[in-house]
Amino acid sequence: MVSFLNTAGAQLAALRVARGLASRGWSVELWFLYRVGVGDFSGLPMRVIHEGANPTFVERLKIFMSVSSALRRVRPEAVLTFLPFASVVGQTAAFLSRIPVRIASLRSPPATFRMGMRILDKLCGSTGVYTGIVAVSDAVAQSVHAYPETYRQRLSVIHNGVQTADVADSQSHARESLGFPPNVPVALVVGRLTAQKNHTFILDIASKLNSVVVVCVGDGPDRVALEHDITTRNLGERLKLIGDLPFERMPAAYRAADFFLQPSVFEGQSNALLEAMAAGLPVVVSDVPTQSETVACKAESWGRVLPLDDPSRWAAELERLADDELYREIMGRRAATRAKAFSVDSQIDGFETVLCAGAVPGFPDARPASLPREG
After folding, report:
1. pLDDT digits (tens, 9 = 90+) for 159-213
2. CATH number for 207
3. 192 in the same domain as 248
4. DSSP label at 104?
5. Which of 42, 68, 102, 147 is deepest in the core (most CB within 10 A)?
6. For 318-340, how does the pLDDT look when each residue is reduced to its tens digit (9 = 90+)?
């Protein structure tokens, strides 16, 4: 169960987990509580509870009632939720419907949630509405270190998995098919056009580039403002917005690019980042803990991690990657090596373990050893 339908990272992760479980013999349905956009989720039974974006308070109550009614009819053995609204609404409905296993997937630090959802999520996790909580990274798990013990004892960490995809196209053909600019170094950005992905900072980076063109894949509520800023700042030659691409076209997008850029202000663990690394792209990312965990940890570095206070450093790094072929190849190999640590099989193994165990308190794998306890 996912809060809303569109083509963002949580939805892709939910689809990947659902398909992985189905391939191992689980009977799986994919539910979205409301619709923001479109997405290809074929191959699985799917339903959208509310056909409309930005539901009102009354409509959210109706969604809760509809979910409760549907759960009582279907009577699943387990409900697995992605994103805060689905977790709070879906798992409360599952609790009242006496669904025995109720796992909430924590996709980003709760501090990034709206205040009401943050309070309700903490309450659900602390009182047993959730029987288990899966954090997508160690950094996300660490972000709740001050939460009650009853919340943290239900916590496990299951990283995202990434699949590599062979692309027969040459880079030039991939660029032509996707509308990428030809014959220039391309820095790829993938993500919804929202404040989280920090596109205003990308504008600042683009303004300092000489040879590199930034291509942004994705759509969202900030598009109109970004298009206005690109025009106002005369950055049309340095920054391109090409909108959403279907999931199956993303391997071609990575093939068309020379390196990957992600100055997000927060992440859980970015699917797009893992996919870019698996495709062998050098990566340049923000120094938020969840990004550092993936790209640079334990004295190892598989990419460049930079602070969000100096766009000139980011621009200089992109220009260096464009100018120095050997450096670009080394950083690409490092990224691809790191991506091998995040397999889809391991991701599905983790969810199967948590689902089969019921994520009961005291289960040996229910909490990462590094997660601090109160006191």
Report:
1. 999 977 777 789 999 999 999 999 999 999 999 899 999 999 999 999 999 999 9
2. 3.40.50.2000
3. yes
4. E
5. 102
6. 999 999 999 999 999 999 999 99
Residue 114, strand partner residues: none
Same domain, 122 and 198: no
Q: How many domains does the chain have?
A: 2
In a shared domain, residues 322 and 353:
no
pLDDT < 70 regions, the chain: 39-40, 42, 298, 358-375
Give the domain extent around 52.
2-161+344-357
For 232, the enclosing helix (H) or strand (E) is: helix 223-232
Q: Do the domain assignments include residue 367? A: no
- 342 vs 348: CA distance, rounded Å: 11
pTM of the model: 0.84
Find the Cα–Cα–Cα–Cα dihedral 131, 154, 15, 10, rounded to 10°. 120
Give the separation between CA 356 and CA 312, rounded to whole angstroms: 50
Query: What is the predicted pLDDT for the residue at 286?
Result: 96
pLDDT tens track for 121-145 = 999 999 999 999 999 999 999 999 9
Do residue 16 and residue 140 come from a single domain? Answer: yes
How many alpha carbons fall within 13 Å on the CB side of residue 147?
27
| 299/332 Cα distance (integer angstroms) | 18
Q: Which residue has the tokens 């100096």?
A: 310
Residues 348 and 208 in one domain: no
HEC string of 289-343 equals HHHHHHHCCCCCCCCEEECCCCHHHHHHHHHHHHHCHHHHHHHHHHHHHHHCCCE
